[in-house]
Specification:
D-Maltodextrin-Binding Protein, domain 2, 16 helices, alpha/beta, single chain
Amino acid sequence: MTSLKSLLGAAVAVGISAVSAFAETPVLRAAVLEYGTVNWELDTIKHYGLDAENGFTLDVQGVAGGSAAQVAFQGGTADVIVSDWLWVARQRAAGKDFVFIPYSKAVGGVLVPENSSAQSLSDLKGGKIGIAGGPLDKSWLILRAYAQQEYGMDLAAQTEQVFGAPPLIFKTALSGDLDGAINFWHFMAKMEAAGMRKLVDVADAAAALGLDPETPLLGYVVKGELLRDNPDLIHGLAKASRGAKDLLASDDAAWERLRERMKASNEAQFDGLKAGFRAGIPAAGPVDEAAADRMLQLMARLGGADLVGEATTLPDGLFVQPGS
């Protein structure tokens, strides 16, 4: 009887210890756009247990827009959001201790109707261009600088611009009401699948301007305080993200389980979205900070304080580098 009691006591102790260990696993709350493409990576992290493997539990909170994510993040109800590092640079220059973990280098471009005779941006002179976002959209600014450099063309003055949300630009472009359209990469993939033709890629325009198209633009944003207090947690997120990328880069089966979430209307869209995501996966390793600084200085020149605030050069400590 004593032996049985001892065994039962040991079993209870082990059970309590296991529950305690589980309870101590940190939870990382991510506020992201409910239908954003980052969910493909986050879903992969959770499905394959890459969060648990790296010492945390990922809690994904869907939000309606980027501003809602920023409010949740700055208000303390979310630990991580997705944004571009230019926004993080602006916040750091304003005294906010935010840091950036690279996620994607995917950018958009200019598409034209399938039957368009345009062969370069200069051929859009006098035409109507739809632009996802506003006048400070980074792709638009890069393309303006590119048109000026390559063709001596003031793209803003010599075309008519229609600004709108990505879905609106998508629909308007497919209706044939635009001579050209600038959209986010995943809408571009669907537009190309529908027959539109790429006129110029923002990555190519950036390279022509002396920028490095390999510089990741989007990433996970966390507070520097969390990085200092729990570096293993933040580096665990970075490792889980890389693990998901490695899977999605090489395993078609990992994409099949995401098919419904991707909302592709047909096989061409599905293939285009998969290819676009894979093309946007940044190389492993540290971010080239000199290249990032060149991009920031160009954005400061083109967009001014309205875009970058007081961040005219790259703030120290912006990027979470491997091993930092």
